[in-house]
């Protein structure tokens, strides 16, 4: 009889202590694990960021709430935090310095929100950040101040936004960046300098934009590039020089699903690209012609031997014409010379005759 009573007492005590600990250290609606390092406030119907997080928090999940605004200095006590997840939380505005003082923050996830702009002071305090995830928002412009303190970011995901403007200094502080994802935006041209300073960039994903124009120097600073995805854009023609600027050994390039104008010039560019061993066009088989209408929907690979035939014929005709003209000219000249010399002789002989 004594034993069960003692057990009951121990049980009651442990329940009491654990509830009181949870109650006093974990914000309402959240779930705190492993002591208090992992705080999970996902889908907790929060409309504001709680202020009573345990100071030991290392990972915080605030996804699937309704936070609308992230105010300046939104996480004043979380100086140990390294992972902060705020995806799908209806965030519309991020005030300058929202993440100030989060000096150990390594990964910041702001995916699937409604962010249209990140102000000049967005990156304050994020100089140790390694991964910044901003996909599925409504960003339109990347200016040169937005990311200015992100010296240590290695992965930046901006997929599925509405970016149509990137200023030439937009990524200049990110000298350690290894992956830049800009898939499914509205970029229509790439101007020199926009990827300047990204000498550690390995993956540049530009799939699904509207790129038509590429300045020839735009990839020259990318000395570590292993994957350049330009598929699903509006390219009609490209210049060989643009890609020759990539100095990495073994860069894979994707160019399918563009608006290719298949002519001799394009065939030559691809021919030259194939001859450069360090550049690998992985999807050449799927480079499909849009123009001219006679070649629409045909793979460039299936017509590439014919495209320069007309030009070759023209060149041949010109060569033959020139050859004939030259031969004719020589023959004429020779004939004239003979005639003249003959006349000369006769003249001479006439002179001779007259002298006689
Ligand atoms: C937080 O909890 C939700 C379920 O409520 C779960 O889906 C999510 O993965 C958890 N977050 C973390 C970081 O473990
Ligand atoms: C989110 O919060 C705003 C006010 O901050 C409110 O107007 C809106 O109805 C909320 N949305 C949901 C889905 O709860
Ligand atoms: C290139 O894009 C920028 C925005 O990123 C735009 O301001 C400029 O007009 C575009 N240039 C051309 C030639 O389309
Ligand atoms: C590519 O061609 C398609 C079909 O003609 C057209 O709708 C689209 O606007 C073109 N893309 C660009 C970026 O010009």
From TrEMBL:
It comes from the Eukaryota. One of its GO terms (cellular component) is extracellular matrix. Residues 1-18 form the signal peptide. InterPro entries: Dev_Immune_Receptor, Leu-rich_rpt, Leu-rich_rpt_typical-subtyp, LRR_dom_sf, LRRNT. Keywords: Glycoprotein, Leucine-rich repeat, Membrane, Repeat, Signal, Transmembrane, Transmembrane helix. The keyword Secreted does not apply. SMART domains: LRR_TYP, LRRNT. The chain crosses the membrane at residues 313-333. Residues 25-59 form the LRRNT domain. The keyword Acyltransferase does not apply. PROSITE patterns: LRR. This is LRRNT domain-containing protein. The lineage of its organism: Eukaryota, Metazoa, Chordata, Craniata, Vertebrata.
């Amino acid at each position: 009889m004594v034993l069960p009573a003692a057990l009951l007492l121990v049980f009651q005590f442990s329940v009491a202590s654990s509830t009181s600990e949870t109650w006093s250290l974990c914000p309402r609606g959240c779930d705190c694990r492993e002591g208090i390092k992992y705080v999970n406030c996902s889908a907790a119907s929060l409309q504001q960021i709680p202020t009573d997080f345990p100071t030991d928090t290392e990972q915080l999940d605030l996804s699937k709430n309704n936070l609308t605004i992230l105010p300046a200095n939104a996480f004043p006590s979380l100086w140990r935090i390294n992972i902060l997840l705020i995806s799908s939380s209806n965030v519309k505005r991020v005030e300058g310095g929202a993440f100030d003082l989060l000096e150990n923050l390594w990964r910041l996830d702001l995916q699937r929100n409604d962010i249209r702009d990140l102000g000049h002071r967005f990156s304050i305090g994020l100089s140790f950040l390694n991964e910044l995830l901003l996909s599925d928002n409504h960003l339109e412009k990347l200016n040169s101040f937005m990311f200015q303190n992100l010296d240590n970011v290695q992965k930046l995901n901006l997929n599925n936004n509405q970016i149509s403007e990137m200023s030439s200094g937009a990524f200049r502080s990110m000298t350690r960046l290894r992956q830049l994802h800009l898939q499914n935006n509205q970029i229509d041209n790439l101007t020199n300098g926009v990827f300047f300073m990204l000498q550690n960039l390995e993956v540049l994903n530009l799939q699904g934009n509207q790129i038509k124009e590429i300045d020839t120097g735009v990839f020259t600073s990318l000395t570590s590039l292993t994957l350049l995805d330009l598929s699903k854009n509006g390219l009609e023609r490209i210049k060989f020089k643009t890609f020759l600027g990539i100095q990495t050994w073994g860069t894979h390039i994707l160019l399918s699903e563009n608006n290719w104008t298949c002519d001799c010039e394009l065939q030559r560019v691809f021919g030259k690209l194939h001859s450069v061993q360090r550049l690998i066009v992985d999807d050449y088989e799927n480079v499909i012609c849009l123009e001219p209408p006679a070649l629409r929907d045909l793979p460039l690979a299936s017509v590439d031997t014919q495209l320069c035939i007309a030009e070759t014929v023209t060149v041949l005709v010109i060569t033959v014409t020139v050859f004939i003209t030259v031969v004719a000219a020589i023959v004429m000249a020779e004939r004239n010379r003979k005639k003249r010399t003959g006349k000369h002789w006769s003249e001479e002989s006439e002179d001779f005759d007259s002298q006689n």
